[in-house]
């Protein structure tokens, strides 16, 4: 039955990974990060295709079965049709995102059936994640805990796995990388600062706190009437932003969804980046890749202290209480102090270059695979659970 792991992998042969995407429409950065690993070939299975052919990521078209679409967790509540028809022979690994995704549970059974190793990329920082106890998420989670490798972009995910009794030697923490060539400070990008501009680049939703940011901005304008807030993204609270745009005569500006190049310019021309995440019953801020993008652009961050976002947002950036007044005070600090704004922005840029370089982090991910490939394939029951 086993074919992909009969003997050691030849160093000159590429590592091959089948990535099963979740049933939403967004390209996953985690898939792209895996594709950057040296000597690695990644194939995506799902529908529609999320990365163009020129990305080097191959694609197998398989549709999804998605019984519901009205809940936030519906991104995980769906599974691939006809996964069993995908030929396993080209692949040494199968990969997916998060333990409780039903697709991850599917892959666990597929990997057990064909003797293929499984890696799960997880950002989860809640060891008592409620979804882990709710059928059918619970079944997917039990299967996922039989995986050969857990790849964690944050330390908190490692802690959460240890609390679930997952073996420590199979957990590897590799901080995410960011494209610091695309995302650069204004002077390197060849653009000029707008002056007094605050950027919110994130889902326009309650859990990212756009409502709190709008309240804080009203306080900011009382003493800094020339300040401007630009909002880029999509989500259920766009109407709230548009109302503020009308009410403030354009001091708040909604930009909608923007291309990567446009986001790079928006961040570079801004003085401060802001979000205000708040926990929900099944989610707490984990890291926040938008923070890294702002840091790469060389601007300071003001955000609420939420979950484990301290892993991304370090002093002298500001993590404050979830109140309009605390956010406003933090924003005013950077708007009024040119020296502090420049110093923190430069330090943020250095942090990205030193800790979040794409090439360096891709090599670190490859080393995690190498380490686990020296361990035996985990014994599983036919359904995918660890024995």
Summarize the structure in words:
With 387 residues, the chain is of the alpha/beta class. 34% of the residues lie in helices and 16% in strands. It has helices spanning 29-35, 102-114, 137-144, 155-163, 186-189, 210-223, 238-247, 260-269, 289-296, 324-336, 338-355, 358-373, and strands at 15-20, 40-46, 58-61, 64-65, 79-80, 93-97, 117-121, 149-152, 171-173, 197-201, 228-232, 252-256, 272-274, 301-304, 318-320. The strands form three sheets. A seven-stranded parallel β-sheet has the order 3-2-1-6-7-8-9, sandwiched between helices. A six-stranded parallel β-sheet has the order 12-11-10-13-14-15, with helices on both faces. A two-stranded antiparallel sheet has the order 4-5. α6 packs across α10 (324-336) and α9 crosses α11. The chain is elongated and about 65 Å long. It starts with 14 loop residues before the first strand and ends in a 14-residue tail after the last helix. Residues 1-10 have low confidence and may be disordered.
Name the descriptors.
disordered N terminus; 387 residues; alpha/beta; 34% helix
> What's the average pLDDT?
93
Task: Tell the overall outline.
Answer: elongated
Q: Which structural class do you get from the secondary structure elements?
A: alpha/beta
Instruction: Work out the helicity level.
Output: 25-40%
Biggest β-sheet description: 7 strands, parallel
Low-confidence region ranges:
1-10
Q: Provide the spatial order of strands within the biggest beta sheet.
A: 3-2-1-6-7-8-9
How many angstroms does the end-to-end distance come to? 17 Å
String of helices and strands: EHEEEEEHEHEHEHEHEHEHEHEEHHH
Counting copies of identical and different chains, the oligomeric state is single chain
Portion of residues in beta strands equals 15-25%
Query: What is the number of E strands?
Result: 15
Total helical elements: 12
Rg over CA atoms: 22 Å
